[in-house]
Each structure stands twice: as C-alpha cells, then as structure tokens.
Amino acid sequence: MSGSAASIVWYSGTALELAFVVCSIARKSFTRYFFLNLYFLLTVGSSLARQFTLERFGLTSDQYRYAYFYTDALLTLALYVALISLYSHVFGELRVGKYLRVTAVMLLLGTALFSYSVVAQSTDRLSTKFAYELSQNLYFVGLVLTYVLWGAVLKLRETRTRLVQFVLSLGLYFSAYAATYALLNMGSKYSAVYLIGPLLGCFLPLSWTFTMWRHTDDTRLVPAQLVAVPR
Known about the structure:
mainly alpha, globular, Rhopdopsin 7-helix transmembrane proteins
C-alpha cells in the first residue's frame, strides 16, 4: 500500500473509531456499551503510539516491532472482552453473568497457555512471537464465540436491533480477519492481501457507528426478519 493510501485509511479508521465513541455519548449509551467504547479508545491510542514509534525509530526497528505486536495483542484482548460484554447483554435476563465471566477467563487463560506452549521452544524474539501467537489464537476463539453467540441470538429470538447488528458485524469482522491470517500464513504474494487488514479496521467502527446512530435500545427487529431456527 502506498504511503498516501495508508494515510487515508489510517485517518479514516481513526475518525470512525472516534465517531462511535462520540455517537455513544450523544445517544447516552456510553456506559451501557462501555467495553465497545473502550476497545475503540484503545485502538486510537494504539494507532497513535505506533505512528509515533514509526516516525521516531523507523519501520524495521525493534522498538516499532515491539510496539506493533504488543498493541495488537492488547487490542485483540480488548475486543475479546467486548465480545463477552455482548454475551452479557444477550443472556442478561437469564442471570448467567457469573458463569459467563468464569468461562471467559478460563478460555482466555487456556488460549494464553496454548500460545506460550507453541513458541516456548523458540528463544529468538520470544515475546513478540508470543504476542503474535496470542493475537492469532484469540481471533480464532473470538470467531467461534461470535458464531455461538449468533446462534444464541437466533435461538432466543433476540429482537434488539443494536445487539443483533453488533453481533452480526463482529462475526463478519472476525471471519474476514481469520481469512487474512490464513492467507498470510500461506505466504500469499498478492499485494491485495496486505490491503485487507487496514481496510477491515474501518469496517467495524463504520458498521457499529451506523447502528448506534440509526437505532436506539428500544428499536426492535420483526421476528420474521431473523433466520428461522428449527424446533
């Protein structure tokens, strides 16, 4: 990606992330969707930290390498927490929040231990490899959990428009990122593959901001609009 194109995508993504936060505040939904807002605030902060490190130390420096992989791991973890918060919204009336939190922590610890076991034999750049492996594995776990949540949305006949569209957008986002990781691991030589990541960074805030702005917590979907689930 050329420098000018990368700058356009970066500024667009940052603007959309801040737009979601501003829209949440305007809609008086900041605290209700606190972890979604926290994710985007951390994304903006991480982008600024990466840009500062890049300009000061250069693309091939160890400082930029550490800044990139550690902020990536942090953002993946924050998105995982945001996903669990959507679980709490969907299952809120069933009073299973405690069990959800325990299960989420156990999955997170299991993913971290598995990621460490994969890279433990390597002594070269262990920390950055661990951060990369953790991000990749958490994306896979997030993908599975998002589809499980989507199944729950359908089964429970969830009709709150915001929740339905938040979950659907997150499922598409995780799926696209998982496909990108797979292509990169296969050593794809197509330059288009390297454009996907930055562009995907714009999709989620755009989709969520549109949903937040257009709908309220009282907006409901017509049950027939959801995919029918066999009984």
